[in-house]
Design brief:
Elements lengths: L6 E4 L6 H10 L5 E4 L3 H13 L4 E6 H6 L1 H8 L8 E6 L14 H6 L4 E2 L4 H18 L3 E5 L1 H4 L29 H23 L5 E4 L6 E5 L2 H12 L4 E5 L1 E3 L3 H9 L5 E4 L5 H7 L19 H10 L28 H14 L5 E3 L23 H11 L7 E3 L3 H17 L6
Parallel strand pairs: 1-2, 1-3, 3-4, 4-6, 5-6, 8-9, 8-11, 12-13
Antiparallel strand pairs: 5-10, 7-9
């Protein structure tokens, strides 16, 4: 609201859900806000808002980015004067409530999408302004890749004076928004040769790149929310290295990085959540860098992880002190809400399994996933996949068609399950 957006849409997914929820609760009389049935639809609705001249934000979590891939990759290459289009994608690299820990930066970079990664709550607030301005300046959608840790925590921030942005004037026609193959090639060339180099040049002097030189002869490159974690670890260990902190992941400020590296006489490390996206990019610049090895599985750094990493590289002598406790913590798996009909359903399925009347129950994303703890579902893949998996299973094992079921919630059915349902009807595949 403070940044002057006119519209917001998205599909719920922890930890991005709260953005639209708050808008619906607080400002639905001031901006156009509402849920879309899935992320692909949300991106296209957002594009429509932008074409109409409105500054718009589209929200989703990381799996939603992949669901929206067709709409997002197409939208990414338009280069037209329009309202701002900002994609707010919340990560979950733990993961706490997500079915995978894929680093979406590779996908976004291949689509020539600029990626901003706020380092703290203040920067998260200010990026709403910055992303909208960049989107209009470079005629491109801008991705704000928000850490789930920041999205699900609170901090005091300094607010700015709210601004009011007038919607852009409509052109005489909308023919620039066509993507015939010849036009698609021209847009790709422009995004590759003009957009990304332009934002790279801008980033070299932007506040998204911060350098601080310490008393140690070694340094760390850090990006996004990992900066908070690294600084906490350094405070614990009493270390004061030089730090290059980035809040932009694509494109990277190559000159700034090279200049920083030249001033480091000792070892140079990199700490980033997700995969080795920045590490690989920086190493391609010819900079000797120590980061995660190829098969390292850390995707969400904790202070202790940082201290272990530095200790393994002879920066400090850090020993893990563990205390044995007599009692194990009480197991508290996620539970179905009291009174929910899902619980009775799961108990019924469990009883039928014991009687050998049900061989398997194919589950889906959402509350129905929790039926796993009641032996109510056996499998879960992605949004809307429960009945698709059942169909494939039944086609291969027709003798079990009357002993398998698929379970899906109503919102997930509307999201992408309807495609599976239509497929069952189209291919005449029996089942429940």
């Amino acid at each position: 609201m403070h940044a002057g957006y006119h519209a917001a849409t998205g599909y719920p997914g922890t930890p991005s859900t709260e953005l639209i929820d708050k808008c619906l609760a607080s400002v639905q009389d001031k901006i156009i806000v509402g849920w879309s049935v899935n992320e692909a639809v949300a991106v296209s609705v957002g594009l429509g808002h932008a074409i109409a001249g409105d500054d718009t934000i589209v929200t989703m979590k990381i799996p939603g980015v992949f669901h929206a891939a067709d709409a997002l990759t197409t939208t990414a290459f338009f280069s037209v004067n329009a309202g701002a289009l900002v994609i707010y994608a919340a990560t979950d690299y733990v993961p706490s409530s997500t079915q995978h820990v894929i680093d979406v930066r590779y996908f976004c970079a291949s689509s020539r999408l600029p990626i901003l990664e706020p380092r703290n709550h203040q920067e998260m607030y200010e990026m709403a302004w910055l992303a909208a301005d960049l989107s209009k300046q470079f005629k491109a959608p801008i991705v704000i890749l928000a850490s789930g840790i920041i999205a699900h925590s609170e901090a005091l921030i300094i607010t700015k004076t709210p601004r009011k942005i007038e919607p852009r004037t409509l052109p005489e026609n909308l023919k620039e928004w066509m993507l015939l193959p010849g036009l698609a090639r021209a847009n790709y060339n422009k995004a590759t040769q003009e957009r990304i180099p332009g934002i790279k040049k801008w980033s070299e002097t932007s506040e998204l790149v911060c350098t601080s030189f310490g008393t140690e002869n070694w340094g760390i490159i850090v990006n996004g929310e990992a900066e908070i974690i690294v600084k906490e670890a350094l405070k614990i260990a009493g270390l004061n290295p030089s730090i290059l902190s980035l809040a932009i992941a694509n494109p990277i400020p190559e000159n700034k990085i090279k200049g920083f590296a030249k001033n480091i006489k000792g070892k140079l490390f990199i700490i980033e959540d997700g995969a080795q996206f920045l590490q690989e990019k920086i190493q391609l610049l010819g900079i000797k860098l120590i980061g995660k090895d190829k098969y390292n599985t850390i995707t969400n750094w904790e202070p202790e992880d940082v201290l272990k990493f530095l200790s393994a590289n002879k920066i400090l002598d850090y020993k893990i002190e563990t205390k044995k406790i007599k009692l194990n913590p009480l197991a508290r798996p996620p539970a179905i809400c009291p009174g929910c009909q899902y619980k009775a359903f799961a108990l019924t399925v469990n009883k039928l399994k014991k009687k050998k009347k049900i061989f398997a129950s194919f589950g889906d994303i959402g509350c129905s996933t929790l039926l796993y703890f009641l032996n109510g579902v056996d499998t879960v893949s992605c949004m809307g996949a429960s009945d698709s998996i059942r169909q494939g299973f039944v086609l291969s094992r027709p003798e079990l068609a009357n002993q398998v079921i698929s379970v899906i919630g109503d919102s997930t059915e509307c999201h992408s399950g309807l495609d599976s349902t239509r497929n069952a009807v189209f291919r005449n595949i029996p089942g429940v």
